[in-house]
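User: Predict the structure for this protein chain, please.
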Amino acid sequence: MRGTVIGLLLRARAALWTARRASRRRAVPLAIAIAAIEAVFLWWALVLSLSLVVAGAPIAALILLGLAAWLGLPHWLIDAVAVPRGWHRVAHALAWIDPRGDGARWQAVVAARAIARAGSPEPAVTWLTARLGGRLDGDAVVAHALVACGRGDRDDARRLLASVPELSPPASVARAVAGEWMAIDAAERGAWRALLDDAATWPPTPVRLVVEAVAARAVGAADAPSRAGLWLRWLLAPSRRATWALLRDPPVVAAAVETTHVVDEADPDLALVARRALGRARGLRRPADVTAAVEAWAAVIDDPAWAPALVARASGLGLDGEAAATTVAAASGRIVAELTALVLDTGAPLPSGEGALAAAVRTSARGQLLDRIELTCDRVRRRAAAEQWLAPIDEWRDFLALRASYQAAVAPGGVELERVAYPHVDDALGPLSVRLWNQRGEPVLSHAMIAWLYAGAVRVGDGAAIEHHGRNRALRVPA
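Assistant: Here is the predicted structure, written as structure tokens:
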């Protein structure tokens, strides 16, 4: 009877663990229930062990206590000893016997955590790479990202970990490691709103729930937990010493104030207003200020009286009519060039006005954006055609870099510009994704690229690409 009860408790614990990983709203009560079951199990093991000792069976009692310790001791040794000291081989071995582990890839992720804490020394990285053999998947990307973090390249680590949800299927434990790293990194950068916006992407691990609760209270979210709820999450989570500072000195994010800049109608010198707007855009480099500068200069240059007035002023200084007109055109060109550069540098939307200045800035920016995309895609196209392969993780890095450049380029112009740019990126990445699947044996990488190309084809309405990538996207990634 007692064995049946213990068996039911262990099955209930497993079911609760699965539910806790899937539910952010019920994570705290589920964690309390799991802790209660573990306390009952530990109590039962101690009572039964004492009974065995009294009955004259100390060896059986030791075996029972060893089995009970096996449920939690390896995991504790990994987090408290092996990883903090950078003992990657010890961490790898402990992960092999850890009942909370998730297969051989999980061992590599645990070893990568230890290697990162040691500063990612090259011999240890080589040792890990040999154990990551085979195709690239989400778990391997997590391991490579942790190594990059250990080398001090947090930007690379952030890009790789942010891409993990696109790679199917990463082990649940490895995805939890990625989610906790992203949460802690966002907290260190003060990116509290971005952390909350990204919350649904990651599993609700105890550490992440603490950081999310701090973020929700910092930004004044309507569903932010109470202070008592925050402390309860902190008590249920590991790494309490590391997260103590967030509770002791909680951050507060000031509410954003939206400001708009308009031409001062009381100021008769519109050129002076435009120069001030341009100076503000140069200094603050915010998209809203760049848009305001374009509007201010459009009010000046699109005025039919502006160019004749400048020509007359230049003629009064001794220039002939042709030279004066050339000077005015050059001044207008310099303004268009600077406004274009500011639009591209800040990611401000392309001007949508019908005037001459807005059209000139829009045309110039689109041309430069398309040139950038075409150059990047041409490099990838030529490399794929020549079968100049990179290591799988570097192929993924190259794709992420190309995608980031593409998204930054098309964002100012919206779907209209993306319709022009998409065929270039499709022509470069389409054949590469097929070769990665058929020739390189990297279906996980290939499938992620195809899924992104399919989403782009849907946005721009490219029927042929939708059909082609849709067929490939429907292929099952081999286990």
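The chain has four domains: 2-70, 95-248, 270-348, 367-473.
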